Amino acid sequence: MVIAKALTIAGSDSGGGAGIQADLKTFQELDAYGMSIITAVTAQNTLGVHGVYPIPLNGIVEQIDAIGKDMGTNALKTGMLFSSEIIEAVSERIHHYQWDNVVIDPVMIAKGGAKLLQDEAVNALIDTLIPLSTVVTPNIPEAEIITDRKIKTMDDRKRAAQDIVRMGATSVVMKGGHGSEDDVVDLFFDGETFVEMTSPRIDTRHTHGTGCTFSAAITAELAKGVEIKQAVLTAKDFTRAAIETELGIGEGHGPTNHWAYKKRGVKSF
Ligand SMILES: Nc1ncnc2c1ncn2[C@@H]1O[C@H](COP(=O)(O)OP(=O)(O)O)[C@@H](O)[C@H]1O
Ligand SMILES: Cc1ncc(COP(=O)(O)O)c(N)n1
Question: How high is the ipTM of this complex?
């Protein structure tokens, strides 16, 4: 049996809905072998982020080397990287191991408002990490910060996606979860063609970790050898299924249901 290996380089969410925990659950559900490099530990639940504790830089590099020198990976994603030092070290190691199928989820601010990336780290993201990427998956506020543009219309989104490809990304998916239109449109751009991936907006406040889950699903599919556009379509389907059925955990913005994609048809637990 050929095992598809998938690696996440991200922050830990003690509540299990986002970050490393969402990534590993997604890898497992999509039949990829999950590995993790923890960049920061957050004390977090459905009510918010209560503390952020970055891992010392040498601890992060040692984790990457542990994978690089022995196990390798077929695809990787980055999530919460917190500082420019961490971004630069992670970029250097990805380059060193010549890893491809690199998914960059430019996590900046948690849904509750806590900062998961320091302001001055955006330049490091643009200069060192985006040029290594197979796909970058910003939500609209993140795309606004990366491109220094206001994004209101679909044309604005397209121009921002073009900017990100010009920064060195092979492709971009600009996620449309933030908004109030009846449909959610995730805009995919591979440097040549735009594809608007549209689905009905689900009326729920339980979207904690949707971006992490989405980028992890792309990573799992790439690890299995699926081409990028199809990987993004499957990831959208996986995330939609996860949002559709509530788990009812916690008092705030609850986690999504990572079992739902495989168990589709079962409407409640
Ligand atoms: N209310 C919703 N209904 C349907 N799909 C959603 C909803 N919110 C987010 N999504 C989907 O979840 C994925 C993550 O999007 P988004 O929430 O914008 O990312 P982030 O968590 O990074 O802010 C996208 O595929 C988006 O279409
Ligand atoms: C450790 C960690 N990483 C990422 C997110 C973003 O989560 P969301 O997908 O809800 O924006 C988070 N809340 N915590």
Answer: 0.98
